[in-house]
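Quick one, T. Sequence first:
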Amino acid sequence: MATLNKCTAPPSFSNPKSAAFQANFRRSGKAHLQLVSSNARIFSRSMVSLPVRRRSSYCCSSAVDTNAENGTAPAAQSEAPVRIIAIVGEGSVSPLKSTPWYDVMLHTAKKLKWVDEGFEMLVFTDNVYRVNDDSIGQLHESLRHAEILMIVAVTNQESVKWIQTNCQNVPNVICFDSSPTLTNKLGGSLIQTKTVGSIFSKLPLPQLKKQKESEEVVRSVYEAWDRHNSDDIKFCLLVIINSYIRPVPILKNLRAKGLSTLNCMVKNCGPQILNCLLDPNCRKALQCLNNCSPIDQVCNYRCIASYESRQLEEFSLCVLQKNNCLELDAKIPDKPVITPMVQFRGNDLDHETAEDLFVGWLGSLDWSWRVVAGQNPAYDQFPCQYQLFYRGKAKGSFWYEPVFQVQTLDGDLVWRRRKYRVKRGKIPGTFYFSVLDNELFQMNFGLLLM
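Structure tokens:
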């Protein structure tokens, strides 16, 4: 977590903020501001404590009512649902800020719904079989139709025996941080575990092609789980669904397509490829990126930040932006549904006031906001980060410039800076951010919360 007392002064830069506005805003007092991006990450400007929800000794829950809670109609479902069961050890605690595994898996169930309304996940604790009520009946019935069973932190031997006896018909079983006697399956084929804490070893599948595909799935799932964050836990399940049940569109084009990608690069970007390979930093960046999982944002960003160069920018601009050799088509997510604040100090929020909140009230200082807490080390949790928002010279123009420190792979702290064009959304308090980052165009959606 980034903290103010460890934050050194940033490189000096001019501050185009309006002096008249600063004076007016200082007199009106301060506010707590959050900017929520389209992927639900929060740029917190202060710390917020959340109450701990108490539960009974056995639990079962799902995320089927997520849209009802958000006040939105469920998305159309064109395919049969994918049914997932998660069984977690009672009282087990995750490495995600010591959050109980039960809560983590409930959150994962909600995030799966944001990907596809047809992904239905029920969460149980492992002592549910000891209780004589409707929960055990619901678990038995759910296991009859389940396509994936996810077992997390189950070490109690009685629970292990119950799972071994009652879950034999589930075609895909994955076990994490659980008893080594539990067996894993992919596509109905048994898979041996390596050691305690690991997931899978080499797969004993008869066909070489199928074996290689399963090994790639195993590697992706293991690497994602080992990063211990909520996005990667969701990714573990999406990989299994995509490989053994039905295609998951958001996983399309995560990797190069072989000859088609190579042909596109050679045909359109020969000089840029050669210049990159001849430049030590650009070459190191490509080697580093090739070793990262396509969904490991931290790994990918550290590679880029560590080896930034003009050659890398030109390579990215040609291969990814101008010619799209990887055929990427990322869209801004429309879930979860989050609404911006509607009032500020008793008045309806308008576009001007929303921009004023971004500009800030820090007077003669050279920045609008300081980031003191964050979620993602490659996005909003840098060792030190300053935010500058200001109105441009052109009518209606608005800009955002973050200046932040990044720890390189060599252990050095370096300053980086980006410049975003900010455009108003239809609703006051909503904005679209666009930036050319290492010659790769990015579009983000953000909104104001109070």
